[in-house]
Design a protein that fits this description.
Length: 336
């Protein structure tokens, strides 16, 4: 049985109090919301914080509100199941609802939070193991070692981004609010991530992700999320495809394609968006956009299933996801 290391639990009632408690324990504390990822990692000794700052019961932390202009304001403590079941999100922000509803399983979705899923730790077959297993192979640079075992010649960690909600929300143009000891700031969600499997977030350690802000959908806007994993539930993604586009007078506008689980951070495929925008939907056009996504994806041999298959299916599932949004799903299946 894996046991938790000793820690002190300090619950907070507000974001301000949480940041204050963290400040009193700087360098020793981590924030704890649902704990569906942090607690197992602590059992495997990937994290050993002496203090956990409880943010599960923050005031207004679980609120999900639609503003007068149609934009969405989500408290970071809102559960994934909340978002998957909310009728307004299912109707107007379908990609988000689909992503939230495919994280792990129903039990975890009822506990796990959107803030936690956006900040979820990167994953690697050499890292997500027990302490004894990692010790037997000499550890990796992400924890206790000094080399990347999947790419020994590399100077950086290649653990992959494993968030389902991040690609979907980046495709929707979301921003996030961060509160720290220096105040509150907002950034585009895509700017929360950087190309490093260890320091994968630009969020400072003291900062708490408090809200997710999603702009109102424009007329004709559609979004979707596709997840590939070995089993139909529980597993982390080996590919995530978040996409959003708007069709106006038969022409594609405002296209976004974002890939998850094929790099250290969510990949925005700008070339795919450039190919789509201003064009009339067709299978040939979607194939070209899918090819651009295929070339952008860089999976390595550090996750479930073989990496070259994961790269090939990127093309297939980007095409299928875009076909759903363009109303060409039947034609795409016939073409296959």
């Amino acid at each position: 049985m894996l046991r938790l290391p000793p820690f002190e639990f300090r619950p907070a009632r507000s974001a301000e109090e949480a940041v204050e408690i963290w400040g009193e324990n700087e360098g020793r504390a981590m924030y704890l919301a649902g704990g569906t990822d942090l607690i197992p990692n602590m059992k495997r000794r990937q994290f050993e914080p002496p203090v956990l700052v409880g943010i599960r019961r923050l005031e207004d932390g679980r609120n999900v509100e639609t503003e007068d202009d149609g934009s969405l304001v989500i408290g970071a403590g809102a559960t994934l199941r909340q978002l998957a079941d909310e009728p307004g999100i299912v109707a107007d922000f379908a990609g988000l609802a689909q992503a939230a509803g495919q994280v792990a399983n129903l039990q975890i979705q009822r506990v796990g939070t959107i803030g936690g899923n956006l900040c979820v730790d990167t994953r690697c077959n050499y890292y997500n193991q027990s302490y004894e297993w990692r010790r037997s192979v000499g550890f990796c640079m992400k924890k206790d070692g000094d080399i990347c075992l999947v790419a020994p010649g590399s100077s950086k960690c290649w653990a992959i981004s494993s968030s389902d909600s991040a690609p979907a929300l980046i495709a929707l143009g979301a921003r996030v609010e961060l509160r720290g000891k220096d105040g509150v700031r907002q950034i585009e969600l895509g700017q929360l991530y950087q190309d490093d499997g260890i320091e994968y977030l630009t969020r400072r350690p003291d900062e708490l992700l408090t809200r997710v802000l999603v702009p109102a959908p424009r007329p004709g806007q559609r979004s979707a999320y596709t997840k590939i994993r070995r089993r139909g539930s529980f597993d982390f993604p080996i590919l995530g495809v978040g996409a959003s586009l708007r069709i106006e007078d038969g022409v594609i506008r405002d296209a976004r394609v974002v890939l998850g689980a094929v790099h250290t951070h969510p990949l925005i495929v700008q070339k795919a968006a450039d190919l789509l925008e201003g064009e009339t939907p067709s299978l040939e056009l979607l194939e070209a956009a899918a090819e651009a996504a295929y070339r952008k994806a860089t999976p390595l041999d550090n996750a479930d299933l073989v990496y070259y298959w994961r790269k090939r299916v990127t093309r297939v599932h980007v095409r299928r996801t875009l076909a759903r949004l363009c109303g060409l799903e039947a034609e795409a299946e016939t073409a296959n």
